[in-house]
Amino acid sequence: MILQPSRFFFSQDDPALRPRILLAAAAAGTSSSSSLARKPGHHHRKPGGGGAARAACRHLAGLPLASVVRYARADGAGPSFSAPSLSHGSFSCYSAGTYLSGALHRATMGPLDPGVPYSYSVGDPERGWSTAFNFTAPLAPGTGASAAPYTLAVVGDLGQTADSADTLAAIVSRGLGGPAPGAVQSVLNVGDLSYADGFQDRWDTFGRLVEPLASRVFHAVIEGNHEEELAGGRAGFLAYEARYATPSNASGSGTPLYYSYDLPSAHVAMLGTYADWGPGSPQRAWLAADLAAVDRARTPWLVVGMHAPWYSSNTAHLDEVDGMRASLEPLLLEHGADLVFCGHVHAYERTHRVARRRRHACGPAHVVIGDGGNREGLALHYISPQPKWSVYREASFGHGALTFANATHARWEWVRNQDGPGAVPGDAAWFVRGGGGGACSVADRAGLVAAAQADFVASLAGAGLSGSARTAGVGYATETAAAVAVA
Ligand SMILES: [Fe+2]
């Protein structure tokens, strides 16, 4: 069905006028002048077939559309919403089979005052505005040891079921932005977003479902296998790339499939499971440069987000991307990564500090948080006995919250949906930087990095390191089959 442009593009209910994409761009803009502009400029070819499909999108050509956001501080300390600032952006669109997207607007607000509430609406001065939304500008990045405590919500494999809605409601119930302790200041989403799986209008419904969250705080996403779709007979990340803004250019990656950004006391590297991660790949070179440029005085914590786990003892997807681990783990160990968040497995699991597939005081802790609530259900089965590196594992829907207390201590909570708001977390832990009081010496780390590098070199001689985990457009089918197999 082809909708009438006059109705589709300018309705107040038009997903193209909704602000979820806008906020990602805004968050990148607020930090670009400080932390992200320092990165070396690697500009890589975007994987996927998105460019060709976008070039074929002509249904909006020639229409007099504007992409404007008007905004003002909502705390009374600046110009009111009756005298707002205006930012002008641009729009794109895409087609996939008979599906024609709405106009996907991107505009960057700013400069914004960090941590300050703003009101904003999006639209076109000639045709009207969306309803007003409120959001909190991202906290100032890179404030190091002086950063006040703040909370990051972590979610994965969300989808758009009743369980997904419960997960989102649980995050929203913490409070979004604002100064209250425990209020969520940004969201780390480790991928498998809409489970559209080629049905493009599911991206629109997913956007509406996530809007109460994504319209109010920075929502950082990275691709999962369900973001790779067939469109026009080609596999690629068409909808993901068209709909989600990431600070990819500012962080030097040049692709939304992997990038980085800064929080007040943490550098967050988002890795691409479905981009090339092998030896000699642009991603590996980018990650090495990105991590080498981190100033741990500005961002003491080093956090990694990605889709498929390196450490999981669930039978679903077991060791599926061990080649990625072999290729990239040496870099995380060399630069002292503290925490790794991932999804893909529809369950929860937290590990001890690990490296080279065993416990090690110099490695990061890994958390599988693929329990957001998607339609494929939970991954119920685990290998037995539980590996020594695994602390806690459970197949229940929920979300995580990480509160950075200071430069050395962070509090982690995993909350089940069925326990309700305010319940005792299903799992909780303090993460302590520095190996927990000197357990990881300089010599220990040097030895570990050398061993991991030797593993990597040895793996090059075998057939273990292929380029990426891409599955040529059938990733969703593969995962569906796996979920059925373990159900
Ligand atoms: Fe997945």
Task: Give a summary of the structure in a few sentences.
Helix 4 packs parallel to helix 5 (201-214) and helix 7 (282-292) packs parallel to helix 8.
Give descriptors for this structure.
eight-stranded mixed sheet; six-stranded mixed sheet; 24% helix; disordered C terminus; binds fe (ii) ion; alpha+beta; 25 strands; Purple Acid Phosphatase, chain A, domain 2
Q: Can you tell me the CATH architecture?
A: 4-Layer Sandwich
Spans of at least 5 consecutive residues whose pLDDT stays below 50 are: 1-55, 472-487
Tell me the strand percentage band. 15-25%
CATH superfamily label: Metallo-dependent phosphatases
What ligands does this structure carry?
A: fe (ii) ion
Helical percent range? 10-25%
Structural class based on helices, strands and sheet pairing: alpha+beta
Overall, the morphology is globular
What's the gyration radius in Å?
A: 21 Å
How would you describe this protein?
With 487 residues, this protein is an alpha+beta fold. Helices cover 24% and strands 24% of the residues. α7 (282-292) runs parallel beside α8 (322-334) and α8 runs antiparallel to α10. It is globular, with a radius of gyration of 21 Å. 52% of the residues are buried. The site of fe (ii) ion has 8 residues, from loops.
Element layout with pairings:
Blueprint: H1 5-10, H2 20-32, H3 50-55, E1 68-73, E2 85-88, E3 90-92, E4 95-96, E5 99-100, E6 104-106, E7 117-124, E8 128-129, E9 133-136, E10 150-155, H4 162-172, E11 184-189, H5 201-214, E12 218-221, E13 229-231, E14 234-236, H6 238-243, E15 259-262, E16 266-270, H7 282-292, E17 301-305, H8 322-334, E18 339-342, E19 348-355, E20 358-359, E21 365-369, E22 390-394, E23 398-404, E24 409-416, E25 427-432, H9 435-438, H10 442-461, H11 475-486
Parallel strand pairs: 10-11, 11-12, 16-17, 17-18, 18-21
Antiparallel strand pairs: 1-2, 1-7, 3-6, 4-5, 7-8, 7-9, 10-23, 13-14, 15-16, 19-20, 19-21, 19-22, 23-24, 24-25
Helix pairs in contact: 2-5, 4-5, 7-8, 8-10
Fe (ii) ion binds near residues 157, 224, 225, 307 and 344.
